[in-house]
Amino acid sequence: MTAAATVWAPPAHVDQAARAEYEAGADLKSVLSARLDSGWAWSALGAAALQDGDYVLAYAHSLLGQELALRALRQAAWSEGQPVSAAVLLGAMVLGLAAESLGAREQARSARAFVANQGCDIHDTELLASLVR
Questions:
Q1: 6-33: b or e for each residue (b if 16 or more CB lie within 10 Å)?
Q2: Which CATH number do you get for residue 84?
Q3: pLDDT at 6 over 60
Q4: Dist. CA 101–CA 118, nearest whole Å
Q5: Which H/E stretch holds residue 130?
Q6: What is the pLDDT of residues 90-107, one digit of tens each?
Q7: CA distances from 93 to 24, 30, 33, 118, 133 (A)
Q8: CA separation (Å) from 129 to 12, 61, 77, 82, 121?
Q9: Is 39 a residue whose pLDDT tops 90?
Q10: How many C-beta atoms lie closer than 10 Å to residue 72's C-beta?
């Protein structure tokens, strides 16, 4: 299943604005500094830490990013069973991969199951990259 088929986003959401700024060329840390409530920006920073091999930082950033993104969805009348936003999916993927690397088996299992429930694979590197770009 493609990311477009599994991702829902509320209109005019802070994550969409943060992602647009980043795609327009802004530095990720600058985007995050201006939008500390962006789950997508925190999760994207976690993805960068994961790529750099800093699994503790990736874990922490993605955990916060996923929580902020879930909170935003709930405020937009989202409910369990509906597709999640790109920010939530990105956070779960990075969190699961970081947890695997750190040996946090239960957290990794939980993240894998969450991502699988969205019709995706936690190890889908193309999907992960598309959620950051």
A1: bbebeeebbbbbbbebbeeeeebeebbe
A2: 1.25.40
A3: no
A4: 22
A5: helix 125-132
A6: 999 999 999 999 999 999
A7: 24, 23, 23, 11, 15
A8: 23, 17, 28, 23, 13
A9: yes
A10: 22
Q: How far apart are CA 111 and CA 105, in angstroms?
A: 10
Asked if 39 and 69 touch (Cβ cutoff 8 Å), the reply is: yes
Backbone angles phi, psi at 47, to 5 degrees: -65, -40
Secondary structure (3-state) at 7: strand
Whole-prediction pTM value?
Answer: 0.87
The count of structural domains within the chain is: 1
Identify the domain containing residue 116 by its residue range. Answer: 31-132
Residue 26 resides in a domain: no
Q: Which of 14-18, 39-43, 61-65 has the lowest mean pLDDT?
A: 14-18
